[in-house]
From TrEMBL:
Annotated transmembrane regions: 36-54, 66-88, 118-136, 157-176, 196-216, 287-303
A matching Pfam family: EamA
Domain spans labelled EamA: 12-136
One GO cellular component term: membrane
InterPro entries found in the cross-reference section: EamA_dom, EmrE-like
Keywords: Membrane, Transmembrane, Transmembrane helix
Name of this protein: EamA-like transporter family protein
Length: 304
């Protein structure tokens, strides 16, 4: 029964997350990365506060260790969220999101050593199939040619450099490997609910960033907040559903399984959402990679 609930939570989380990625892509132009991260987490704080009050999710005891561990994950999440926004701003969803599939392979290792999770052979094969499917999409030069990708350019020590959206998404994948493992460890060993953990993270992320942005660029930050009030509140609502259910699924299933299935589902859905709403192009390799990842999801579910 727990497994079924875990997979249902994963499926709903995937759908909400994919739609949230589409909203982020549409909102990424004209708004700074740091404003996006700060304001989205600010709205998330109020949604989660209401959820915690409604479900009585506050812990009976608070301690220094709990606060420090959540603070550390929050700092890493600031970087990962900023990199995510930069990636979807530079590259189409169909070519940037697939890089997140590496996250599931990394979690097979960290989950085994850090959380004592021993995946089945079918589960490992499923994760590998998802990675292969994502790799096919990453090397599909025709897709990259059809869906033009921009680069982040900068000068360092007199030399010009450029970074792609995929580069930033790989950073996201590496950071998520650490934070996902750490978050499950915190929930298990400190007996915290997903809602409360997310609530505290939103506090550590949103309020310092909003204060910093207000001091550095009051006009720009205020305009972004006021003009996109409805969009940010809507995006935050979707993200809270996706992240909250993802955390709940991690309580019930192996973290590598949940993450692999969600990443694959997100990649598949982002391909079709990008085609439907963002005029991104599809190729035969794109469809083959989606099929490989879909089979991988089936293997993971059967492997549990």
């Amino acid at each position: 029964m727990n497994s079924l609930l875990g997979w249902v939570a994963t499926a709903v989380s995937t759908g909400a997350g994919s739609y949230g990625d589409l909203v982020k892509k549409r909102m990424s132009l004209g708004i700074t990365v740091w404003d996006s991260v700060a304001i989205t987490n600010f709205f998330g704080f109020f949604y989660l506060l209401f959820t915690c009050i409604l479900t009585n999710s506050f812990p009976l005891q608070y301690n220094y260790n709990m606060v420090v561990q959540i603070l550390i994950t929050s700092i890493f999440k600031i970087v990962s969220q900023a990199c995510f926004y930069m990636s979807v701003n530079l590259a189409p969803l169909s070519t940037s999101i697939p890089y997140l599939s590496w996250n599931s392979l990394f979690l097979l290792v960290t989950g085994y050593f850090y959380l004592d999770e021993v995946p089945s052979y079918l589960g490992v094969v499923g994760c590998i199939l998802i990675l292969i499917g994502a790799y096919i999409k990453q090397i599909d030069s025709k897709t990259k040619e059809l869906n033009k990708e921009n680069y982040y350019r900068f000068n360092l020590l007199g030399k010009n450099f450029k970074l792609s959206g995929g580069f930033f998404m790989i950073i996201v994948s590496l950071i998520w490997t650490y934070t996902t493992t750490k978050e499950k460890h915190i929930m298990l060993h400190l007996n915290l609910t997903p809602s409360f953990l997310l609530l505290v993270q939103r506090i550590f992320i949103s309020f310092p960033l909003m204060f910093m942005r207000y001091l550095l660029s009051k006009k720009q930050f205020t305009e972004a907040f006021v003009q996109n009030f409805k969009s940010f509140s809507y995006l935050s609502f979707i993200e809270n559903i996706s992240t909250g259910l993802h955390f709940k699924a991690m309580e019930l299933l192996y973290v590598s399984y949940v993450t692999a299935a969600k990443r694959a589902g997100t990649i598949i859905m982002s391909t079709f959402l990008g085609y439907q709403y963002l005029q991104e192009k599809l190729t035969n390799k794109c469809l083959i990679s989606n099929l490989a990842m879909a089979i991988g999801i089936v293997f993971i579910v059967l492997g549990k």
